[in-house]
Design a protein that fits this description.
It is elongated, with a radius of gyration of 27 Å. The chain is an alpha/beta fold.
Length: 667
């Protein structure tokens, strides 16, 4: 039985316009004197996984569930209620800050945060400054609890602004994302409004629907639950939200319903595959939700009902949280003590942070007299960091704390996908380090005959941004003004397979490849090469050699390849369109369409393969970034490449159309 009474004022309120994705779901409710609880059977993927589970019933005076996902939800709430017994927990509805959702830019955050402040003060009657809250007669912990607000919100732009607004008002905030973005059910709306918990953020249509549901419930007085078969969707919610990329400016990629669905399916399977005791601890993050590098775990949680636990932000009053300037204002960053507090509070055993953040946290934990921080550091089983180079001093610090650090390259998955089972998830990056590197990914082996493990150092990254200086141009392409994982792959030797890439149909191009891989660039170059005349010698066999990725390729240079496309063949202009595909198990591939979708000649097949090798060698310096053996030709038996009237490739539709063909290819 899950004790929920520890929360003195628990309100789980649903934000946004999202609705349950499954066409049929059940909701069971029960009220405690000071508690309102809502939950439902969540994603279709989780529903499929739970189909074989037996029905489990909690005490009738708390909650009745028939899904392991609901059980996990209650476990999480119970867990947090034990650690924050006096903190109000609010799941906010959408706020006026959402008006800047359409065009999220950093210079708009200041206005959005100000709107959020006004909304918090007016709607929830919060003091404009936490220092105004009377804490006389309370000890330090009790006073801190009284000025703490636990947020249970979906990580949308406007809710991010709420988080920042609360921090700037001096409140200590704990941000927990318990998400799907559920349909706001009628009873909860009615109860929340009658208690004046919320007065805004709901549209009239929803209120009218709520009233009709209330009548339905009142007519079924013998039951404390109701069923609905209303099919509901995300109502365009995701199409308006923009996801931040991993560079210094927002990339403003829209998240489509289809891509979110794929993410949800993968994540639900990954989450349910973990042992129960891990499900509410594994995703302990040390970045805020507006940090650039981990939008994917946020969206996985948003779509799956999983939990992201962020560190306590103690705002401005005790100067514990530092900040740095970006365009548009300051960004709050949790420091070492914030991280240690959060680890201790959540009993966390896995952590994601930058190398610098990990080092500061580790040093603080080693030097502190705080027993809670010491226990938090000693209980940390492993830590994950991005692909940025670390110093030997950092490595020594981690070694002193017996902290095993895994370095994750070319991914925005916040390191957690390292723990996933590939057979279940097929996520966009499947890390497969060698056994001796499994927990030492800050190191790599330069010589297979030597057991010495060497560090990635700044000099190993020629495009690395030097502190205090401008971005350096990437070697071979001065238009790339930032260091990225291309540097890493250029340094890898054929005998050092630290990892291999995987991709998902929806995200591979924009998330896995990094800032240097631009799909349009690849498509333009592929079209250019495919329209070069075919030489008579282009189909001659070449002697294979080992490529940097360990696979065989033809032994010739970029110049030789380009010179091979030099005849007067008129067939070259038969190429009508090309498109690049990101795919779950086939890495990066492409589709070539000839005029009238005619069948390709052998010379054209060879030309496509050679073009892929040219792009790999001259453009991106990735090992087989564009798979030559995975080039598809559109024929009368296949779909045609989808192109808009303006001539733009519709990549998502093409990935859906040709993905099944790639699945059948023996690669």
């Amino acid at each position: 039985m899950c004790e929920l009474k520890n929360f003195k004022n628990l309100v789980l309120f649903v934000c946004g316009e999202g609705r349950v994705l499954s066409s049929k779901h059940e909701i069971r409710l029960c009220f405690q004197p000071t508690t309102i609880i809502i939950h439902s059977i969540i994603t279709m993927a989780a529903k499929e996984l739970s189909a074989q589970e037996g029905k489990q019933t909690f005490s009738n005076d708390v909650f009745q569930v028939d899904s392991p996902c609901l059980e996990n939800f209650l476990e999480g709430i119970s867990f947090w209620s034990k650690h924050t017994p006096t903190s109000p927990a609010l799941l906010f509805p959408r706020t006026p800050a959402s008006k800047s959702m359409e065009t999220v830019q950093w210079n708009e955050f200041r206005d959005s945060v100000q709107l959020a402040k006004e909304w918090l003060c007016k709607t929830l009657s919060l003091p404009s400054n936490a220092s105004k809250i009377d804490v006389s007669g309370l000890n330090e912990d009790e006073a801190r609890d009284k000025r703490t607000i636990t947020l249970l919100i979906a990580p949308t732009h406007d809710n991010i602004c709420i988080l920042m607004a609360l921090a700037s008002m001096g409140y200590t905030t704990q941000f927990i994302c318990l998400a799907h973005v559920y349909e706001v059910i009628a009873t909860l709306i009615h109860k929340a409004q009658s208690q004046k918990i919320i007065t805004g953020g709901l549209d009239q249509d929803r209120l009218e629907k709520s009233q009709s549901h209330l009548k339905e419930i009142s007519n079924s007085s013998s039951h404390k639950w109701f069923q609905t078969e209303e099919k509901s969707t995300l109502s365009g919610f995701l199409d308006r939200v923009r996801v931040f990329g991993s560079t210094n400016v927002p990339k403003l990629y829209p998240v489509s319903l289809e891509s979110a669905n794929l993410s949800a399916t993968d994540s639900a399977k990954f989450w349910c595959a973990l042992p129960n005791e891990k499900r509410w601890r594994r995703q302990l993050e040390t970045s805020l939700c507006f940090h650039f590098s981990f939008q994917q775990p946020v969206w996985r949680a948003l779509m799956c009902g999983t939990a992201l636990i962020f560190p306590v932000i103690r705002a401005n009053q005790d100067q514990s949280t530092h900040s740095h300037e970006r365009k548009g204002g300051k960004v709050l960053i949790p420091n070492a003590t914030d991280i240690l507090d959060s680890l201790a509070m959540a009993d966390g055993d896995a952590l994601y942070a930058s190398p610098t953040g990990l080092e500061r946290m580790t040093l603080t934990g080693l030097q502190t007299e705080n027993e809670s921080w010491k226990r938090a550091l000693s209980s940390l089983k492993d830590a994950h960091t991005g692909g940025a180079p670390a110093s030997r001093q950092m490595a020594d610090t981690f070694a002193k704390a017996n902290l095993e650090v895994m370095q994750v390259f070319a991914t925005t998955e916040a390191g957690m996908l390292f723990l996933a089972k590939p057979s279940l998830t097929k996520h966009l990056c499947n890390l497969t380090p060698r056994p001796q590197l499994a927990h030492k990914m800050l190191f790599y082996q330069r010589d297979p005959k030597d057991d010495t493990l060497e560090l990635w150092l700044p000099e190993d990254f020629p495009g690395l941004q030097k502190y205090g200086l401008k971005f350096e141009a990437y070697p071979g392409d001065e238009s790339i003004q930032a260091w990225n994982t291309c540097d890493t792959f250029a340094r890898l030797t054929p005998y050092a397979p630290l990892y291999e890439f995987r991709g998902r149909t929806d995200d591979w191009l924009r998330l896995t490849v990094g800032t240097a891989c631009r799909a349009l660039e690849i498509e333009d170059r592929l079209m250019e090469l495919m329209r070069e005349p075919i030489s008579q010698s282009s189909s001659k066999e070449q002697s294979p050699v080992l490529s940097p990725s360990g696979s065989s390729s033809s032994q010739f240079s970029t110049t030789d390849l380009q010179n091979s496309f030099t005849s007067d063949s008129s067939d070259a202009q038969r190429v009508e369109a090309v498109t690049v595909l990101g795919h779950a198990r086939k890495a990066l591939s492409a589709v070539v369409q000839l005029k009238d979708c005619t069948y390709p000649q052998e010379e054209e097949k060879q030309m496509a393969k050679r073009a892929a090798e040219i792009i790999t060698e001259e453009k991106l310096q990735y090992p087989l970034i564009l798979r030559p053996e995975a080039i598809i030709f559109a024929t009368p038996e296949t779909p045609a490449i989808s192109i808009t009237q303006k001539g733009s490739v519709q990549r998502k539709k093409n990935e859906q159309a040709f993905g099944s063909i790639l699945d059948k290819m023996d690669l």
